[in-house]
Amino acid sequence: MLGIRIPIGVWRNATPFRPPTLRFRAIAFSMAPKSSISHIIFDMDGLLLDTEKFYTEVQEIILARYNKTFDWSLKAKMMGKKAIEAAHVFVEETGISDSLSAEDFLVEREEMLRKLFPTSELMPGASRLVKHLHASGIPICVATGSHRRHFELKTQRHGEVFSLMHHVVLGDDPEVKQGKPSPDIFLAAARRFEGGPVDSQKILVFEDAPSGVGAAKNAGMYAVMVPDPRLDISFHEAADQVLSSLLDFNPNDWGLPPFPDTTI
């Protein structure tokens, strides 16, 4: 059995450990041999980059005009999806579709987001993990629902980290017909690794969104979830492991090269 580092996890079929200050239940991965993972796919928003807060801020501003509030049950339904898909969820779930179309919502949101995206910061542990995997010879890539124009704004201050990716698959890629939880984007990412397509059972996906975890599982891949603590714990169920931060990821758990002792 793989080791547990409290408060990160418990194993499936064990009594869940639920720390009073965290709403995480890390789920055991009693699946493939540890040595099976050979490739890594990273989501970006809310996982590598702290950008989800921008979407929340802007959407709260828009809804305030209609005397409505933006909550995490709605955000969970929108996260990870293509922009137009998320927009339809937004206007329909909030009941404002008669006043604001999904298309007009995106136009209004775009103007505000373009001012915020260039200030994006890396999430804790993101740089450390990406650099370690790259230095260890593990092929890594990004698969994000963000379109190219947004990707360039969000990553412009973080070229050092994103330059280590073997490739990037974006939400407006022609091979991505449907957004998450469809497996399209992760299957496209698997095809583009050197010598691809890579066997899905050899790929570990890092995600923060329920739809992203669903996409990874629908692609036949393993999923580590690093959700926002405000996300209801019921959304953790599909993940193979749930962490409170990328800083808590232990490569040994998945048969990946361990962090050097000097890494902090």
Can you walk me through this structure?
With 264 residues, the protein is an alpha/beta fold. Helices cover 32% and strands 8% of the residues. The protein has helices spanning 52-64, 72-78, 83-93, 102-116, 126-135, 148-155, 159-162, 184-191, 210-218; strands at 39-42, 140-143, 168-169, 203-207, 222-225, 241-242. The chain has a 6-stranded parallel β-sheet, sandwiched between helices. Helix 9 (210-218) links the parallel strand 4 and strand 5. Residues 1-31 have low confidence and may be disordered.
User: Which structural class is indicated by helix and strand composition?
Assistant: alpha/beta
Mean pLDDT: 87
Strand order of the largest sheet: 3-2-1-4-5-6
Radius of gyration: 18 Å
Counting DSSP H or I runs of 4 or more residues, the number of helices is 9
Quote the distance from N terminus to C terminus: 25 Å
Largest sheet properties: 6 strands, parallel
Determine the strand fraction and express it as a percent band.
5-15%
Helix content: 25-40%
Low-confidence sequence ranges: 1-31
Label the overall shape: globular
Could you tell me the number of beta strands? 6
Order of helices and strands: EHHHHHEHHEHEHEE
Lay out the secondary structure.
Elements: E1 39-42, H1 52-64, H2 72-78, H3 83-93, H4 102-116, H5 126-135, E2 140-143, H6 148-155, H7 159-162, E3 168-169, H8 184-191, E4 203-207, H9 210-218, E5 222-225, E6 241-242
Parallel strand pairs: 1-2, 1-4, 2-3, 4-5, 5-6
Helix pairs in contact: 1-4, 2-3, 3-4
